[in-house]
Amino acid sequence: MEAVSHGAKEAGGLVVGVTAPPLFPTRKGPNAHVDLEIPAPTLLTRIERLLDVAVGYLVLPGGVGTLTELMAAWNVAMIAHMHGQPYRPVGVHASWLELLRPQLEIAPAHLELLSVLGSLEDVETFLSGLPR
């Protein structure tokens, strides 16, 4: 996600990269925009660390890895919500729901845990609402 890292850096953000070097041995470290690297030994540890360090999740179009991360973040939010606990916001590009709705049985209460982002303005609003 170099483009996201680049944009966050340009906006003055601290860019934290949760990487999994053993999965990509030919890569030479994180991308040039990362300020702080948090390496993980496995994919599952990487996802767990992503879930632990974030104050919210912005899920843009992507592949299988992005889908895995979305489902993990959404599931953690659903479980917290079921137990009356606070949960971290999950903002998703509208295309993910177009993919998931026909394939899954999704309760309306679970859909309400997602912020559907269809425009740059939606993304800006979502990001500005995250805790600092």
CATH domain topology of the largest domain: Rossmann fold
Rg over CA atoms: 15 Å
Strand content: 5-15%
Largest sheet at a glance? 3 strands, parallel
Gap from first CA to last CA: 22 Å
The CATH architecture designation of the largest domain is: 3-Layer(aba) Sandwich
**Number of DSSP helices?**
6
Overall shape: globular
**What number is the mean pLDDT?**
94
- Portion of residues within helices: 40-55%
Order of helices and strands: HEEHEHEHHEH
Strand order of the largest sheet: 3-4-5
Query: Would you state the CATH class of the largest domain?
Result: Alpha Beta
* Number of DSSP E strands: 5
**Overall tally of domains:** 2
Q: Determine the structural class based on helices, strands and strand pairing.
A: alpha/beta
InterPro entries: LOG_fam (IPR031100), LOG_family_nucleotidases (IPR052341)
EC number: 3.2.2.-
GO molecular function: hydrolase activity, acting on glycosyl bonds
GO cellular component, one term: cytosol
Structural notes for this entry:
The chain has 132 residues and is an alpha/beta fold. The protein folds into 2 domains: 1-53, no CATH class; 56-132, Rossmann fold, CATH 3.40.50. It is 45% helix and 14% strand. It has helices at residues 2-10, 43-53, 64-82, 94-100, 108-111, 120-128, and strands at 16-19, 36-39, 57-59, 90-93, 114-117. The strands form 2 sheets. It has a 3-stranded parallel beta sheet, with helices on both faces. 12% of the residues are buried.
